[in-house]
Amino acid sequence: MSATKLRDLLRRRGLIALILACLLVGIGGYLLWGHYGAPTRIALVNFPGYMSSGIIRSNGSRHVSFAELEQTELDKLDDYDCVLTFGMGLKWTAEDRAKIAEQGKHGAKHLVLFATTDENNINTLGSKEGKRISEYFGSGNKANYRSLARYIRRYVDAKRWFAPEPDSVAPSATDVYYHVDESVAFAKLSDYEAYLKQQGYYHPGAKKVMLVGGLNDPFGGNKQNLDSIIMSLTRSGLNVYPVTSFSQRLRFLKEVSPDLLIHFPHGRISMTGGDEVVAYLKERNIPVLAPLTLMAGREEWESDPQGMMGSFLSQTIGMPELDGAVYPYVLSTEERDKDGLVVLRAIPERLARFTTLVHKFLTLQQKANSEKRLAIYYFKGPGQETLAAQGLEVIPSLYRFLRHLQSVGYDLTGLPETEEAFAQQLMREGPVIQKVSGGMMADYLQHGHPAWVKRSELDRWMQTDLSAQQLTELKEKYGPAPGSFMTQQRSGDTELAVTRIQYGKVVLLPQPMAGLGEDSFAIIHGAGAPPPYPYVASYLWARHAFAADALLHFGTHGSLEFTPRKQVALSSSDWGEALVAPLPHFYYYTIGNVGESMMAKRRSYASVVSY
Fold first, then answer.
1. Looking at the domain that runs over 40-156, which CATH code has it been given?
2. What is the pLDDT of residue 221?
3. Least confident of 88-92, 155-159, 384-388
4. pTM
5. For 198, which of 101, 252, 447, 519 is 20 to 30 Å away at the CA?
6. Residue 49 has what pLDDT?
7. What are residue 484's phi and psi, to 5 degrees?
8. Could you tell me the residue ranges of all domains in the chain?
9. Domain 176-365 belongs to what architecture?
10. Residue 89: in which H helix or E strand, if any?
């Protein structure tokens, strides 16, 4: 072999050796990177959107990533270095659990947190790791969620590069007053009020509203809904006291002595010493409003004919009802932000109405009885049928009630001196008219002293208080407003008559028929159609023209709670909400009809007073 060929051979062998060395270094580097430095991928399965968003937002590492998965996406779990599953609401089958167990045999690292059954209490990480992760979640706040990501990378995924030591579990602030600034956490009322004054949030002499409860922790990194509620109430002139506490709510109530309590419900007002808390609220006559936070997007909720169901219904509406909380008014829903993460946000127009509602409840506390304006609805059949209510002699009971109101200072100027004269006036000036024919409507419009509502006035009220869907339904069913029933040409325009009898600042109104037809029973219990214009106009007149401070339905029962659409968690397109909110609503209801009284509470926001 010539010297030249030998040099070429050696050169080629050197090049091959270099290539092999580079390959070995590359493979080694790849293996080292995979073992020590590759990103840690964590799956969050079945977590509420607001909770997973708080975890993801708190992550401060570029080398840890989170992904949200549904509980049905078990085939994707192998793609992750660690799987964390939220145990509440799991619907795994035995087959699903067997698949998870098989994945565990092949090294999958899976931990179920907050499991509600033994079979779902799964931990393939090890007891030490499972305990530490559970502790981070047990005190869920931004610091602990940040440490959670570090801990999983370093001790579960066993990465050593870009893996700083996690902090120990940081106690979550509890039994404190909080505010929109996440760094605010005051154990003492005096310190909190000093902060309010310093920041310009305090209103000397103003009413005090206390906030308790909530699905989202105010220190968990996802509290936009709470912030907007706090600021809306504050800007309206109220002093707001948001409290996070599980076991000390009674102490905070006594300390603050609020004029009104807002409970963001998921269970009782207080899960410890609940009866004592209720007794204190009753003793001090503190109203409790229970606005709802939904685990659904706005469109999903608005299109849902039920509104809410299952265990979430019992915890969010049923349990608070037992404690006396009222007005289960949807205030916050889930929404995706610009990063695609779920945030809880108060719906702006609903928050504005809720703020008005809070002030109306507070007005009832501070306004003199002589100045309060009360609209009372009673129920009767059409024509000359008498007033009706289950288990109640209505005319004597209503008259005595009005006399009692008069005795405690309400303005009932013109109330007849005798029950007999009162009954005659009710039948003469407060009828329910079911049809145009027969001459009764014409006679009443001529001699019955109704309140007249101009077409333009009714249009303005409906545009303000009804949804576009409701306006369309009314027009399709009954023609352009105000329709042809209970109307008359006056001063060159069509006006609609609202049947009412007014005594000073208290007005009595017969609830109009909620539909057209001859079957009164079927109409009252759900006509399956939008209520006619006279029905709508009656409630809007009470709110806008009469300027009622509150509504009262007298006796069991009317038709408002049987109008179409949602069963609970009403939207602005539900008639029970559109015709009542944002007024305090009271319902004098028989204690012998619990089932339908629940409908009155949930479908017309009624505070039920039993007889």
1. 3.40.50
2. 85
3. 384-388
4. 0.89
5. 252
6. 92
7. -115, -5
8. 40-156, 176-365, 368-610
9. 3-Layer(aba) Sandwich (3.40)
10. none
